[in-house]
Amino acid sequence: MPILTDSPDPQLLNQLRAGDNQGFDKLYRQCYLSIEHFVVQNSGNQDEAKDLFQETLLVLLTNLQSPDFQVTSSLKTYVFAISKNLWLKQLKKSARWTSLDDADEVSCFVPPVELETPPSAYESVIAILKKLTIRCQTLLSAIFFTSKQITDIVKDDGYSNLHSAQNQKYKCLQQARKVSKK
């Protein structure tokens, strides 16, 4: 099975334009697994990945029919970019994805006392934070709750340099993701 290089495969593009099933099979073998992995890692499942791949093919075929269409990267990269954009758009629409701007608004919401409601996003975040190491609790609280700049954290919390503080932030976020999935 040939691997796509940085330039698009003209034979594959022609097969896709013509609606040749061999072209679609080749594209599927080269692209589908990475798209499925992306969807599953980002709040999706295999069925949603299959649907997304179908939508991606529709967008690709529509673009291929345009006479001035040119692919400047590998076709695999182009197809993955279409899928990624479609999936993120779908996540935003279905409210399974919250940007950091939206998270601030959610955490400020105070539900009425007389109503019994499920835990708010703020309570969920606090519950996850309590399960992290003290170092991660301190670092993430400083960044996300007090809006402390990472450069100030380097100075105040004894990190040797900016890179080590950023690396620790990444590790703490990974730890929080693992805890939240349990």
UniProtKB/TrEMBL annotation:
Keywords from the UniProt entry: DNA-binding, Sigma factor, Transcription, Transcription regulation
Report the GO molecular function annotations.
DNA binding; sigma factor activity
Which residues are in the RNA polymerase sigma-70 region domain? 27-96
- Any Pfam family hit: Sigma70_r2
What is an annotated GO biological process for this record, any one? DNA-templated transcription initiation
Please identify the protein, giving its name as recorded: RNA polymerase sigma factor
* The species this protein was found in: Spirosoma foliorum
